[in-house]
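Input structure tokens:
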């Protein structure tokens, strides 16, 4: 049956339809081509119903799910003639839509408009994808460009190039200056005439403090 707006349009993945055509040409498909055959051919369970519907809508299978003359003609076509046979099949199957668009030059938005009256409405984008994929298989137009995933922008403060490992700690920064200030203050207090420096009370603590400084302690 031709693809017309009064009937549900085909919306199976083009890779599924093309894969079945190639398999029929190279190995043959058992008849009838039912759900079990499609499953053995590698079609996933979720895609089997829409693939069967598309094969029948595109005149590759009849109502009994048996290969049509068109499908058999594609299987028997020689390699030099194969693409022409594919183009003839598509032009006949999509004759209703081709009344409004030229498949080799039409923009994707124009193709989308040509399918806007087809049902189910929620699958029209898949119909367009199948149309473009099949005509690319026939060598009539380029493949649909894959959609690029959106790049998520993240906001945040700039990373300080100085890591924590390289930042001087408070012990390292203040140890020398604090010791010098404390020593200078105490020394001024004990440098009166006749006084001994360092006094006995500070000699032992000071020696321990210097030994600890030499070991890298605060």
């Amino acid at each position: 049956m031709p693809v017309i707006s009064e009937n549900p349009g085909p919306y199976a993945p083009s890779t599924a339809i093309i894969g079945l055509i190639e398999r029929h040409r190279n190995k043959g498909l058992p008849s009838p081509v039912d759900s079990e055959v499609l499953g053995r051919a590698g079609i996933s369970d979720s895609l089997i119903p829409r693939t069967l519907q598309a094969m029948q809508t595109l005149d590759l299978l009849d109502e009994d799910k048996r290969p049509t003359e068109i499908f058999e003609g594609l299987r028997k076509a020689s390699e030099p003639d194969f693409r022409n046979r594919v183009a003839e099949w598509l032009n006949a199957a999509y004759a209703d839509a081709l009344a409004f668009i030229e498949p080799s030059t039409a923009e994707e938005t124009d193709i989308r408009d040509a399918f806007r009256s087809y049902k189910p409405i929620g699958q029209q984008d898949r119909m367009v994808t199948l149309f473009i994929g099949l005509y690319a298989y026939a060598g009539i137009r380029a493949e649909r460009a894959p959609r690029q995933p959106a790049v998520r922008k993240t906001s945040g403060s700039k990373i300080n190039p100085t890591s924590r490992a390289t930042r001087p700690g408070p012990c390292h920064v203040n140890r020398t200056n604090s010791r010098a200030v404390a020593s200078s203050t105490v020394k001024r207090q004990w440098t009166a005439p006749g006084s001994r420096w360092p006094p006995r009370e500070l000699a032992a603590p000071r020696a321990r403090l210097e030994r600890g400084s030499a070991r890298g302690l605060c």
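The chain has a mean pLDDT of 80. Residues 170-214 form one domain.
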